From TrEMBL:
InterPro entries: Vam6/VPS39/TRAP1 (IPR032914), VPS39/TGFA1_Znf (IPR019453). Residues 153-192 form the Vacuolar sorting protein 39/Transforming growth factor beta receptor-associated zinc finger domain. It comes from the Eukaryota. Residues 44-73 are annotated as: Disordered. This is TVLP1. GO terms for biological process: vesicle-mediated transport. Signal peptide: none annotated.
Length: 208
């Protein structure tokens, strides 16, 4: 047995010495592992270069940046739609309230289609109200002047002055004068006539 083992060992050494191109067991494994490791490192470095390259698809942006950009694009589209609605429905929208709801960075140039006709309408309405106010003031002055003229007029009551309603003398009773300045009546008669007119109008409205 010992002789057989020695013989096999000699044959093995002989084959190894005659075949230098055949690598020994375990001699090629480290080189292979080392080459595979370099290959993996190169692939990782290439992937990093692709990720951070300016010409890459992501262009150095993270997912959060992409979402922010998408939100900004959506907000821009929404703002354009709002401005378009304001320019078309400016006559049905409260201008001051609408401006409070818009973003602060909204350009004034973009608001011109909305503010232009709105300001023109406001100016026109202000001028109309000014004219109406002047007319009302003038009318009020005329009424005051007429009232002063009526109060200034003098009416002479004599012992023969008669009440136009009861056909009795006025005497010393309280009297009323109609707007024509000539018709004189007792105040009691005037009050009763007004009450009768009111009752008559009420009964007619019930019949209708």
């Amino acid at each position: 047995m010992k002789t057989t083992k020695n013989f096999e060992k000699k044959i093995t050494n002989l084959v190894s010495s005659q075949s230098p191109g055949i690598p020994k067991i375990g001699s090629g494994t480290p080189a292979k592992v080392k080459g595979g490791r370099f290959k993996k490192i190169a692939e990782i470095e290439g992937a990093e270069d692709t990720r951070f390259s300016p010409s890459g698809t992501d262009s150095g942006r993270s997912d959060g940046d992409t979402e922010d950009a998408a939100e900004e694009g959506d907000s821009t589209i929404m703002l354009d739609q709002v401005l378009d609605l304001l320019s078309k429905r400016w006559d049905r929208i409260h201008g001051a309230q609408a401006l409070k709801l818009l973003p602060r960075d909204t350009k004034l140039q973009n608001l011109l289609p909305f503010l232009g006709p709105l300001l023109r309408k406001s100016s026109e309405a202000y001028r109309n109200f000014s004219v109406i106010k002047s007319l009302r003031e003038s009318e009020n002055l005329q009424v005051k002047d007429e009232l002063y003229s009526q109060r200034k007029a003098a009416l002479k009551i004599t012992s023969d002055s008669m009440c136009s309603l009861c056909n009795k003398k006025i005497g010393t009773s309280v009297f009323a004068v109609y707007p024509n300045g000539k018709t004189i009546v007792h105040f009691v008669c005037f009050r009763d006539s007004q009450n009768m007119k009111a009752v008559g109008r009420g009964s007619q409205s019930r019949k209708r």
